[in-house]
Every structure is written in C-alpha cells, then in structure tokens.
C-alpha cells in the first residue's frame, strides 16, 4: 500500500520574528537613525511593535513615535537615509531562533521546497541570510514586488516560483500580517509564538501554533497531517 501523500509539498517562511529575532538589530539601527535627528532611541518594546510591515513603515513609525512629521513625503525624505543605515548594518545583532538551520535541512532532505516571503527590504534580507548561511529555493522580499504583505501577491509569487499550490503550502509567520496574507492566498498558516505579534484582531485563528521552528517538522513531515 502506498503511504498517504504529504499534506504540504512547500513551506514558505516569514523572516523577522519567525526565523530570526531582528529586534535588537533594528533597535540599534533605528537608534542610530534617530540620533542623527537628535531624537531618543527606541525601546525594545517599541521596536518589536514596529516590525512587520516593512522598512518604510518601520521608519514611519519611528518618526511618528518621536513626534516628527510622518506623512508620505516626510517619510520618503528620511527613508533613503534609514535604508542606508539598515543595509550597512552587520548581521551580528540579529539572533537566529533555535534549530532553524537543522529544521530547514530536514525539510529539504524530505523533498519539501522551501521559500522565504518577508516584508524586510532586499539588501538587509541578504545580509542576514548570508551571515547565517540560510538559503531558500525562492526569496521574495519587501522590494521584490510593488505590493507588500498582507497583500497576497508576494506569497503567491513565492508559491508559484516553488511550483506549489496554495492548498499544499504552509506559510509560517509571527504576525497577524502573515495570517492575513495566508488567508488572502488561501493557504494554511502556522504561527511562531516566539515572534512579535501574537494577538489577532482581524485574522482568523492560525491553523497551527508552534513554539519553535523544529516543531514544524511534526506537522509538515507527517504522512497524513490533518488536512487544513
Ligand atoms: O517589517 C519588516 O521589515 C520585516 O518583517 P517580516 O520579515 O516579519 O515580514
Ligand atoms: Mg515577521
């Protein structure tokens, strides 16, 4: 008798708050940016709460929090400098969550295609991936398409590039933005609870909740994972 086919042939990951704890790095980056404007540094709580909608929105929230104008033109004017500081920052203040490289290798060995779909800008994404030796079959960053999550296009593009289908893809993220993205695409969603935003107001409950990345293996590698 043939084994049951796996439920998931493709897994796509969010980056910040899911595979890496980037809050200490972004706190430092934002603080250097704000210091040039003679403004106080961000707290780690502020930093965590500002991550998830991409670099431009992070910059906007940082400016807003320190009482600067934060309309589109004002943010555009500052974003060039912010992105320069962000892109030049070493990866050393980012912390890889436990078991990530091993879990990615296990998925690969099992023939699962793996992708990354993040709102993080392209240059700092690649700095982090190279520093931690993480590689994916497709990488969609905040700069790849005109749309950012929670619009469905970035995740749809990742799934298409992997040759997968929404129904047989698991999207793994840490925020309601990711949950809304998965909903818009029509794929199941696993929430990594160690990330930044585990309270949901608009999205439905996650299909799965995992407290660490290796916990995914039990879901994805099961021959007859509960159909999502
Ligand atoms: O907001 C960001 O820049 C990064 O966010 P993400 O990796 O969680 O999509
Ligand atoms: Mg995230």
UniProtKB/TrEMBL annotation:
Gene that this polypeptide is encoded by: gph
Phylogenetic classification of the source organism: Bacteria, Pseudomonadati, Pseudomonadota, Alphaproteobacteria, Hyphomicrobiales
Residue stretches in coiled coil: none
EC number(s) on file: 3.1.3.18
Reactions it catalyzes: 2-phosphoglycolate + H2O = glycolate + phosphate
Alphabetically ordered keywords of this record: Carbohydrate metabolism, Hydrolase, Magnesium, Metal-binding
Signal peptide boundaries: none
Any one Gene Ontology BP term: DNA repair
UniProt-recorded name of the protein: phosphoglycolate phosphatase
PANTHER family given in the database record: PHOSPHOGLYCOLATE PHOSPHATASE
Swiss-Prot/TrEMBL cofactor(s): Mg(2+)
Pathway stated in the Swiss-Prot or TrEMBL entry: Organic acid metabolism; glycolate biosynthesis; glycolate from 2-phosphoglycolate: step 1/1
Enzyme class: hydrolase
Family: Belongs to the HAD-like hydrolase superfamily. CbbY/CbbZ/Gph/YieH family.
GO cellular component: cytosol
């Amino acid at each position: 008798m043939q084994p049951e086919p796996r439920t998931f042939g493709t897994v796509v990951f969010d980056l910040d708050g899911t595979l890496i704890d980037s809050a200490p790095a972004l706190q430092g980056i934002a603080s250097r940016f704000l210091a040039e404007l003679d403004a106080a540094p961000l707290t780690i709580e502020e930093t965590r709460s500002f991550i998830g909608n991409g670099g431009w929105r992070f910059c906007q929230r940082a400016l807003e929090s320190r009482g600067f104008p934060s309309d589109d033109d004002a943010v555009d004017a500052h974003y060039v400098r912010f992105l320069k500081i962000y892109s030049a920052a070493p990866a050393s203040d980012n912390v890889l969550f436990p078991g990530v490289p091993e879990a990615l290798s296990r998925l690969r060995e099992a023939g699962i295609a793996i992708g990354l779909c993040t709102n993080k800008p392209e240059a700092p994404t690649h700095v982090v991936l190279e520093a931690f030796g993480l590689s994916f079959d497709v990488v969609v960053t905040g700069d790849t398409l005109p749309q950012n999550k929670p619009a469905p296009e970035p995740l749809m593009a990742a799934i298409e590039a992997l040759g997968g289908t929404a129904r047989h893809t698991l999207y793994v993220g840490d925020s309601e933005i990711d949950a809304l993205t998965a909903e818009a695409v029509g794929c199941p969603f696993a929430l990594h609870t160690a990330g930044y935003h585990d309270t949901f107001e608009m999205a439905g409950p996650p299909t799965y909740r995992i407290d660490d990345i290796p916990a995914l293996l039990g879901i994805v590698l099961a021959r007859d994972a509960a159909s999502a």
